[in-house]
Design brief:
CATH architecture of the largest domain: 3-Layer(aba) Sandwich
Helix content: 25-40%
CATH topology of the largest domain: Rossmann fold
Number of domains: 2
Largest sheet: 6 strands, mixed
Radius of gyration: 23 Å
Number of strands: 17
Order of helices and strands: EEEEEEHEHEEHHHEHHEEHEHEHEEE
Structural class: alpha+beta
Strand order of the largest sheet: 9-8-7-10-13-14
CATH superfamily of the largest domain: von Willebrand factor, type A domain
Strand content: 15-25%
Oligomer: single chain
Length: 392
Amino acid sequence: MFFQQLSAYPLALFLCLGTSSAEGQTNLRIKALPLGDRGVIEDFSPGDWKIKLGGKNANVISQRLPKDLGKEGQNWVFVFMPVRDPEMRQLAVQSVATFMVTLPATDSVLVVVRTEKGLECFTPGFTTRPVLWEKALVRVLEELPARLAGNPEPAFSLPAPPTGEKEEGIEPIQQFLAKIAGRKMERSTDDVTSKWSSIVDSYSIESLGGYAKTIATTLESMERFSEALARSPGEKHILVFSRNEIDDLANPAWARKVTQMSSGGYTKKGVNEVMAGRDVLNSKLQTEMMIRDVTLARISLSNKLTQLGLTMHSVGGGGANYFGAFAEAAVATGGYQYRFDTDLVARLSQLLPLWATRYELEVALPSGVSQPTKIQVETTRKNVRMYAPFSN
């Protein structure tokens, strides 16, 4: 599994850059977030960075400080994948609304939900208006599904921002939070009605093919979505909530279950023959292939986000050691992983603003190095946690 932070000297981070920079460009822009015991370290100078591009030493031409980037308007993207359990759905929406209360008037919000129709925008594109944020969150509470349904095409078109944007107060979000405080969420028609003894027991071998296809298509739609975001102006921060079949089939419990299944790979002709004259796959190999397809789709999404220079954070999982299917992509982009637990509301509001205040380094490509290329970033400072994108 990807690992996003190195907590000791030296700090080494590797990144293969693709479409985040134009072909033939001689300079790269790299964003990094160094954290110390007291938060963001804001006094780095160009001489504190040691950067290699393609194995060659590279010069930092200039840098923008966190305090400078923090003055600019940010674009926050909240993506709601299906979330099982009504309490978790309410927790997800409550955490976003609480975070919205802290946003300055210059920040824009885009709310997207994965429904039967695919990825749907619940806001009319990026908008700075809290009254439109509130309408979107009301819809999320009403329409956010508990399970994946439908298998729509992965194409995505980002709506243009609404015209006539104007500065508004945050009162609509505050009123929304007051309305849902203490409110008990009702179960939806697609909620699971009973607890499973384990994740593995919830799916039959016969159903895995359909789920694997739906998951792969959904992850591909996230790639098309990220491409649309990359084409829009401004700094984007993506936060994905997910607690559904995608997370189930990415859970390490599946790998353990496969190894426990009957051995073999093919059933030969004449032994438990199903189709005359042909070999057939047994259930163990079928399961392995489906897990492989889901894994490859997750890796592809991670690489796409990293190449586009987008930062994604994830909320998923619930156990001590599992953060959900989107955790690896969050790590690969230099983002943060959150668990679905009672501390989510407070942690989201405390930690998310850090990613709007990173360093932006302009680095010259050494002679003979072209893109995409591997980047190594080091600092002579000790006791620093560094968040930055990388890919294998």
